């Protein structure tokens, strides 16, 4: 089993809350994580039809059978359970009673906000991070291989070729999760929609354009984007609110939670194709943003990230706040090139002139090997981030 960085924080939270909830994409390793971490606890899956039927018909009896120290997998499958859990844990008044897991964030979070607010902490487990792969000795050799392979644990644990894994993953997701979340009549059109989203990673979201290309209405496109976000397939990076020039764009940028899935949707058959692929820069940018994002989630924190772009096209790929440094603002440019160029810092210099921040707040992340401290900011190799 590959050790997960989020485990330490999960253990800490069990001493502070009656319930800890672990959510995230399907196959990200939620069940494996909690079962290995809490091997002496009872385990119940509400995916099991018999157990789900028992819980639905007799929630009190279910909780009497599993009064504490129980992992309840796919808890969102029985929404009524959450109200009974509230009464049960309030009566016991103990910490570390249950761990709930679930993949469909919308259903899970609605139930939690209604019944378990203040009684649970929510963790998001994403596919394997760069650090987790490196510690386990399974890190792909090159950046292109990392983009192509993605981070789903089963690829590494069961030695499944990425193409095979993601083909099956897409089919299972479309056939199962989408139908549970939304009444989508034509799954072929929805699959085309997902592929069109893959072709827009790292780009400003234009819903009308996306809808037109797919042959659907803008309202449907918004609804389907919500489904994809709910299922941890995509996420949005919002534009920075600091109005230095009064000419900022207001549209978010679209990213995928896993770059291997994007490669499959783009029908990339081999990591060598990435060297000349027109979206290689976007894919690398997605990989880097995912790495920042996963690090925050593994510490139980919500990322404080955005991007900055004015209407002239001057863009900073990532703007972050560092809580450890008085919420200081840092600007990051992400470049897929491996050779230093002063042009990498062109937008950062403009950002500094607009914002008043110094070059100490600026960095460029690239695929090269040499870390450099320049007058315009720091150049950081991807593998030293």
Largest sheet: 6 strands, mixed
Weakly predicted, low-confidence segments: none
Helix content estimate: 40-55%
Classify the secondary structure makeup into a structural class: alpha/beta
The backbone outline, from C-alpha atoms, is globular
Termini separation (Å)? 25 Å
Beta-strand segment tally: 13
Gyration radius, rounded: 22 Å
Q: What's the pLDDT, averaged over the residues?
A: 92
What letter string, H or E per element, gives the SSE order? HEHEHHEHEHEHHHHHHHEEHHEEEHEEE
Residue fraction in strands: 15-25%
Oligomer: single chain
* Total helical segments: 16
Instruction: Please list the strands of the largest sheet in the order they lie side by side.
Output: 8-9-10-11-13-12
Characterize the structure shown:
The structure is a single chain. With 385 residues, this protein is of the alpha/beta class. Helix content is 42%, strand content 17%. The protein has helices at residues 7-14, 30-37, 49-57, 59-65, 81-92, 105-115, 130-136, 143-149, 153-157, 162-181, 187-198, 207-214, 218-230, 259-265, 280-298, 346-355; strands at residues 19-23, 42-45, 70-73, 98-102, 120-124, 234-237, 253-256, 305-309, 315-322, 328-334, 362-366, 372-374, 377-381. The strands form three sheets. The protein has a six-stranded mixed beta sheet with strand order 8-9-10-11-13-12, sandwiched between helices. It has a five-stranded parallel beta sheet with strand order 2-3-4-1-5, sandwiched between helices. A two-stranded antiparallel ribbon has the order 6-7. Strand 10 (328-334), helix 16 (346-355) and strand 11 form a beta-alpha-beta unit. Helix 3 (49-57) packs across helix 4 (59-65) and helix 10 crosses helix 14 (259-265). The chain is globular, with a radius of gyration of 22 Å. The relative contact order is 0.10.
């Amino acid at each position: 089993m590959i050790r997960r960085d989020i485990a330490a924080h999960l253990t800490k939270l069990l001493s502070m809350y009656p319930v800890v909830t672990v959510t995230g994409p399907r196959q990200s390793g939620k069940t494996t994580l909690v079962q290995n971490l809490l091997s002496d606890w009872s385990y119940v899956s509400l995916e099991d039809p018999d157990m789900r039927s028992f819980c639905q018909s007799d929630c009190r009896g279910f909780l009497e059978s599993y009064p504490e120290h129980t992992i309840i997998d796919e808890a969102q499958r029985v929404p009524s359970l959450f109200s009974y859990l509230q009464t049960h844990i309030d009566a016991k008044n103990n910490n570390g009673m249950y761990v709930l897991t679930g993949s469909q964030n919308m259903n899970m979070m609605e139930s939690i906000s209604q019944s378990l607010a203040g009684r649970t902490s929510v963790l998001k487990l994403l596919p394997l991070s760069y650090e987790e792969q490196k510690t386990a000795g399974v890190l792909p050799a090159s950046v292109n291989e990392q983009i192509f392979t993605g981070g789903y644990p089963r690829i590494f644990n069961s030695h499944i070729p990425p193409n095979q894994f993601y083909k099956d993953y897409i089919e299972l997701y479309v056939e199962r999760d989408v139908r549970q979340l939304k009444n989508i009549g034509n799954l072929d059109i929805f699959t085309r929609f997902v592929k069109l989203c893959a072709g827009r990673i790292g780009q400003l979201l234009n819903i009308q354009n996306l809808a037109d290309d797919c042959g659907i209405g803008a309202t449907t496109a918004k609804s389907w984007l919500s489904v994809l976000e709910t299922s941890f397939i995509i996420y949005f990076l919002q534009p920075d609110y600091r109005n230095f020039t009064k000419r900022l764009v207001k549209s978010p940028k679209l990213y995928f939670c896993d770059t291997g899935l994007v490669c499959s949707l783009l029908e990339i058959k081999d990591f060598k194709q990435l060297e000349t692929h027109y979206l290689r820069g976007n894919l690398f940018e997605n990989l880097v943003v995912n790495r920042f994002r996963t690090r925050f989630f593994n510490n139980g924190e919500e990322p404080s990230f955005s991007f900055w772009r004015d209407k002239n096209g001057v863009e900073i790929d990532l703007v972050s706040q560092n809580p450890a440094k008085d919420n200081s603002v840092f600007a990051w440019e992400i470049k897929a090139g491996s050779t230093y160029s002063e042009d990498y810092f062109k937008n950062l210099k403009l950002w500094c002139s607009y914002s008043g921040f110094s070059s100490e707040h600026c960095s460029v992340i690239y695929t090269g090997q040499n870390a450099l401290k320049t007058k315009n900011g720091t150049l950081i190799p991807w593998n030293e981030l």
